[in-house]
Amino acid sequence: MNKLIDEILSLVRDLKDGDNIEQTRTRLINDLEHLKKDIYINDFKFKKALKDKNVAFSLLNRTSDDLKLALNEVKVRVDQLNILLNTIPALVFFKDLNLKYQMVNKAYVEFVNSNQTDIIGKSVDEVIRNYDKKRDYNLLEKKVIETGEKVYNIVETVIHNYQPAIISTNLAPVINKDGNIIGLIGVSQDVTQQKLYEVELEKAKELAEQGMKAKSLFLANMSHEIRTPLNGIIGMSQIIMQTDLTEKQNEYFRTIINSGDSLISLINDILDFSKIEAGKIEFDNKNFQIGDILYDISNILSIRAEDKGLEFSYTIDEKIPGILNGDRYRIKQIILNLANNAVKFTEKGRVNIKVILHKEESDNVVLKILVEDTGIGISEEKIPKLFLSFSQIDASTTKTYGGTGLGLAISKKLSQMMNGDIGVESKLDEGSTFWFTIKVKHAEKVVDKVENEDNSIEKFEIREGLKVLLAEDNVVNQKIASFNLKKLGYSIVIAENGEMAVQKFQQEKFDLILMDIQMPVMNGFDASIKIREIEKENPESDPIPIIALTANAMKGDMEKCISAGMDSYLSKPFKTNELLSTLKSFISKK
Amino acid sequence: MINSVSFAARDYVDFEEKFKSNLANLPFKPTIAFVFLSIDLPIDEIIQKFKENNIQVIGASSCGELLFDNSLEVISDSGIVITITDIKKQYYYQNMFKREELNSYDFGKHIGQFVKKKFQNPSVIITASGLTLDGQELVEGIVSGAGQITTMFGGLAGDNAKFERTVTFNENGITESGANVLVIDSDNISVVGLATSGWVGLGAELEVTKSTSNIVYEIGGLPALEVYTNYLSVNVDDLPAIGIEYPLMILREDNVEALRAVLGIDKDKGALIFAGSVPEGSIVTFSSSPGFDVVDNTISEVEKFYKLYPKGDLFLLFSCMARHLALGPMIADEISLASKKWNAPVIGFFTYGEIGSNENKTCDFYNQTYSLVQLTEK
Questions:
Q1: Which of A107, A105, A106 has its CA nearest to residue A190?
Q2: Which fold has domain A203-277?
Q3: Residue of A nearest to B326 (CA)
Q4: What's the topology of domain A89-190?
Q5: CATH placement of domain A286-442
Q6: Which value does ipTM take for this structure?
Q7: Rounded to a whole number, what is the distance in Å from the CA of B231 to chain A's nearest CA?
Q8: Which residue of A has its CA nearest to B247?
Q9: Inter-chain contact A58–B232, Cβ cutoff 8 Å?
Q10: pLDDT tens digit string along A287-318?
């Protein structure tokens, strides 16, 4: 445009008289037209630029305000997050993919006794002094980065303030918006105090367990200490009763025997209960007939019921399979317990036992056994306490009717352990129906014979003239055993301790040894081991059967006897039939 | 080849005279004419002339008319431009549609169904009322109704930035709410074109928090009108005119940016009315032409297009009125180039919205765009 103006200027300046005015005018007009157009365009461009500038300037201002606001908001958020991070009562750290610290909170800085700038960009080995590099912590961090899995509760001991401290760490991957792992976050806690508590707790637990063991041992010893004299009292009374006595004397001795029996059943209850409490009950499942159990119970209780003028009966559901598989002794124990109570707490009327097929499954049979009486009954509010241990209805009950209050608690535990339950429906002064259910199996397929407790043994004919060595230190027990054995036609030699038993064994020939366990000089275990050693030196003769006699009716005795080389085990005070049955099994082997 | 004769007139008297003389000397038998004119001209009388001479019309009111050929370079804002052609009748259908009660999308769908029935491979030239239709929904409706349509060009009628009354018309009548559609048989007439804008986004990204179709009530939780005047430091009275120059740019999820010019305002509701849909939740920025180098950009696009399609009988140009406002006298540079390159007439108008097909052969609705279409008989 300037060039055009210069051109016009020089054209006008150089204008002289005599020039071709027409030609110059045409050129001038042409140039001025161009100039006008250029000015128009420039003017438009200027106005447009001004408008754009104003709009752009305003937008810039507003956008800048927006940015300031947004930045301020971000700052507030960052401050909040920082406060949060530094207030968290744990050591928090963020690491990049190279496992170098990118961010740590105040608690962390304080724990490692350093400062932010010294920590950022470093690895754990550089930050935590005395770090045991052999530990697999670094591998766990790597695993989090590589697999994206979280790792919880990494417990380590590190040095903190010159003292060992136990810290527990949780690690998690940090994943960005695109789903890529960009690092990991860790949260550690000082659990030193907690660990100390745990050690204390462990100690306390050990102490408690020792206490439990002591309790069991005490019970075992007690049972031995009580059973042994009791055995003497009952045994001697039985012997005396077989001599000529007056009617009065006979009655007194029967009372002694009955009291002894009560005491034994009480001890058995306590022992049973402590076994259940200790979880040491094991079921001995064999084929049985429910009818046999009821028959036995009837034998035991019907006489007592008749004495009280009560009607005693039992019925068995016909649908129940003839032979079942379960622990007949424990089933009998529960029924006997309930039925015994029924007879005890009923003054007139009747006691009836009903066995019902509750449910039959492919493998199992659920039996429901009901014991109905017309006794004193139980009020509604007292029923819930009924099955608790050491609980009778009230203290006066114990005085009137006796008992430990353990029977129902034992029955409940036993029925539950046989996948059943127990309960009662009762009305005060009208009577009670106690019931329980148990799950037993169908009979095992190879059915040889149904084991029966007593009856078959009585039919066994005793071979006379057998010679038995009885090792027993207690004179009363010596007398009871020899009385019983002699009555059966055995000849008896007595040894007063284990050592003497070994001597006698070497001197004479016996068919069988009955070996007490707790004896002075040498106990039954050692004597048996010795005898087996002697037998090894003379391999031509058959090993002699040794049957242990023990009042230690606790679990584990049987195993101990067998490992000492003994063949079987009889718990004192033993019944004649039990002795016979055991003898029979060894003698028939011969 | 399509033969044509073009002329421009200042007013009705001028038109009458030029129409008469041109018709008397026509070297071919006319079939259809393209007519773009100022809303202030007597449209009824003008179309009557075409009807009397049995010439069909595709027409629209404008925000300025343009006509460039080897002898003319016309950019006017109160006149009329005309190109009379001899496109063979068997190669096209022309029909005017009135919207009645339909919404923009369903109206488009209705048009699309018509288009589909006419030719196996139809192309569409369309002019539609600018102030009463949502251009985006109209295009989507047509595409949906026609199914396979790939080529469509056109523009929304204008009214010299008065924003009062826009019309589209044929030789039989005028409508303020409708569209005039020319369906062309692509197997016999090649219809190709380009659509280019060059506008750039400016300032912060904001979220449209309340809108229905093409009416935006709130941006960033504030009244849209307030946000617009506040950010650009402009007066409510400057709207909607200034809103065409500085449109909103929608940042679509597929990374395609769509420009939306303000065509109206609702002061009571504080709302902005756009030429096309602005869905709720859209992220938008303001935008502006980056300066006069937009023209260079258009020129390079036209050069590329020339290399692909060097033969052209006739060109239609739908150019946004905002380009005229922003580029002023420089607008002639990007128009005249096409006419010179192909030595063919370019007729068109400055619009309230452009319709075009991009390189991927999908139709879209634009603002601020130079939408050029070439018609060539095969």
A1: A107
A2: Helix Hairpins (1.10.287)
A3: A48
A4: Beta-Lactamase (3.30.450)
A5: 3.30.565.10
A6: 0.79
A7: 5
A8: A55
A9: yes
A10: 888 988 888 888 778 878 888 889 999 999 98
